[in-house]
Design goal:
Blueprint (H helix, E strand, L loop, with lengths): L36 E6 L5 E5 L12 H13 L8 E3 L2 H4 L13 E3 H11 L2 H12 L2 H14 L22 H11 L6 H4 L3 E6 L5 E6 L4 H4 L3 E9 L3 E10 L2 E10 L2 H18 E7 L6 E4 L7 E6 L3 E6 L6 E7 L13 E9 L2 E10 L8 H8 L5
Antiparallel strand pairs: 1-2, 1-9, 3-4, 5-6, 7-8, 8-9, 10-13, 11-12, 12-16, 14-15, 15-16
């Protein structure tokens, strides 16, 4: 019995964002920003939506800690570090200037304590403590930062600090900060720390000091969709921020460097983010687990089986544009023979936008499929006997 090619056309409506931003713009009204450089980036694809001098090299102040947090989260993911690991505070870290947790030489704090210190208080001693713990020395950790920056294609960057205090030959760009921010967001656990507004911590060798930390990123308490990521300030760098937030399926990253004051930094970042969410939307026309069609598998215990895709399809576009997505599923008859395992490739799926193919994915089994019994197979082959 010859099997037919299975083809499915299904129109998928674009779903608007669930939360409306407070300001809607029809175009990019950013000619008068105080910030020296600005970028707005889609966190999923890295597509740049707003670009004002984004490759200008500038001192980053404490948004340097984005790379320090990235290396920390990557070490945790590799199993080389755990949130509960104990870190003995080195003298070099305890003597760090600027914003501090006021850690003492020899006291012991957990990795999680230091992450809260970096993300909430922007504590330089916490950043240097974890840097020395990971790198062995501060200089070796800084070498790790530069190596990771090179791997990520951060061509405008030279790190010479793990915390962001002024150092010669320490610079980056808004574009590169967005790149490292995007990479950090691949570890969504970091948002637990960057989105904490206030937290009580204990410090000191005898756990003798209790402090209440308040997040330096005021946007997380003012704007419902913003949940990170890092602020920074030195007199050389000016006021900086890497802000991130999500509405629906769209997550954006906004980096401003060299703003004239703290409040202007926050209001300008808010405006740029609002523009992004007002002008753009994102959707998943097809996602892993979606049953895009059913197919006949003649020798299977279940005659009709579900077909899905091997990966998600993500689409970013302006809200003013009209799009219709369809899918065409092409199954290979010779592969539709039981037994089959969930994830087995059985064909291809074309993704079309307004009738034009924008991508092709593997069509895969949505579930395991077992062979039918000999009796059932015989019954299907010779129905006239039954």
């Amino acid at each position: 019995m010859k099997k037919k090619l299975c083809m499915l056309f299904c129109a998928i409506a674009v779903i608007p964002a669930l939360l409306a931003p407070s300001v809607a713009y029809g175009a990019e009204p950013f000619n008068n920003l105080s910030a020296r450089s600005t970028i707005l980036m889609d966190a999923k694809t890295g597509e740049v939506l707003v670009d004002i001098n984004s490759h200008e090299k500038r001192e980053p102040a404490s948004i340097t800690k984005i790379m320090t947090m990235l290396l920390t989260m990557e070490a945790i993911k590799r199993g080389e570090l755990d949130y509960s690991d104990k870190v003995t505070i080195a003298e070099e870290a305890a003597k760090t200037g600027g914003t501090q947790l006021f850690l003492e030489t020899g006291e012991v704090r957990t990795v999680e304590d230091l992450l809260y210190g970096m993300a909430v208080e922007s504590a330089n001693d916490a950043a240097n403590a974890i840097a020395i713990h990971l790198g062995g020395t501060l200089s070796q950790f800084i070498a790790m930062m530069n190596a990771r920056a090179a791997e990520l294609g951060m061509h405008d960057t030279s790190f010479n600090s793990a915390c962001g205090l002024h150092e010669e030959n320490h610079y980056t760009s808004a574009y590169d900060v967005a790149i490292s921010s995007r990479e950090l967001l691949k570890h969504p656990e970091i948002l637990k720390y960057t989105n904490t507004w206030m937290i009580d911590v204990v410090v000191g060798r005898n756990d003798s000091v209790r402090r209440t930390l308040a997040n330096t990123n005021k946007l997380i308490s003012r704007v419902g969709y913003i949940d990170g990521l890092k602020t920074g300030y030195t007199s050389e760098a000016g006021h900086c921020i890497s802000a991130t937030g999500q509405i629906g399926d769209l997550r954006l990253i906004c980096v401003l460097m060299g703003s004239r004051d703290s409040e202007t930094r926050f209001s300008e970042a808010h405006s740029v983010m609002d523009y992004g969410f007002a002008a753009y939307t994102a959707s998943y026309p097809v996602a892993i687990g979606d049953i895009i069609c059913e197919a006949d598998v003649f020798n299977a215990d279940a005659r009709r089986v579900g077909i899905t895709v091997a990966e998600d399809v993500y689409e970013l576009h302006m809200k003013s544009e009209q799009h219709e997505y369809t899918v065409e599923t092409h199954l290979i008859p010779s592969r539709l023979k039981a037994p089959l395992k969930k994830g087995d490739t059985v064909g291809t799926v074309d993704i079309l936008k307004n009738g034009h193919i924008v991508g092709t994915l593997d069509a895969v089994m949505a579930q395991d499929v077992r062979k039918c019994s000999f009796f059932e197979y015989f019954r299907r082959m010779f129905p006239e006997f039954f």
